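User: Some background: our group keeps a shared notebook of sequences we're curious about, and every so often someone picks one and asks for a predicted structure to add to the entry. Today it's my turn. The entry only has the sequence so far, pasted here. Could you supply the structure so I can complete it?
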Amino acid sequence: MEFGILDRTQRFDHIGFGYGHGYLGTGTGDSETIESPQRSARPLPTALPFPTMPLFLIRHAVAGVRDNTDPFDDQRPLDEVGLHQAMAIAAEWTEPVEAVYSSPALRCVQTVEPLAEKLGLTVTIAPELFEGAAPARSIEFVRSFTGRSVVLCSHGDVIPDVLRALELGGTVLDNRRCAKGSVWRLDNSTERIESGTYHPVPVAAAS
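Assistant: Of course. Here's the predicted structure to add to the notebook entry:
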């Protein structure tokens, strides 16, 4: 897999993200690897149309290490890196959305709180986005927003399940990554969701 900083002059400025130099969080597990920005990311396919009614899937930012013996793991907060990621998402966001939804997990809520505050919105808790939710339930929830521009913050099991289901339904995705703090931008203009593009977030973009 390739990781690195995307060229913001070619791919971010016209879709609402304009991140500066930094490092990328990678991986889909609870342990997070911070990759060097020396290597270039694979360019986004030019054949994919940019969404006119985008729905955003955000994986929660970095939140330390999971403790499987802790019954209150859902209250695990973002760590310092994750807080920077959340701030970076909000700081560089330029697109209007009508609502922000989050898994009940604290790390998800904290990831989108700065963004919601910037947009003058409140974070609405959605159990359908919680870790371990039945895939059919999560997918139905995502599809319920056809024609609406919303932000949904969820986990590293839920988002890949949703993406796989969308692909099976004909959605064209540019890859299948889902790093912590990353953003999937889906074309939500039709019920099928025609396409999706992936945007990693540099953890050093906010200071």
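Suggested note for the entry: Residues 8-199 form a domain with the Rossmann fold fold (CATH 3.40.50.1240). The chain has one domain: 8-199.
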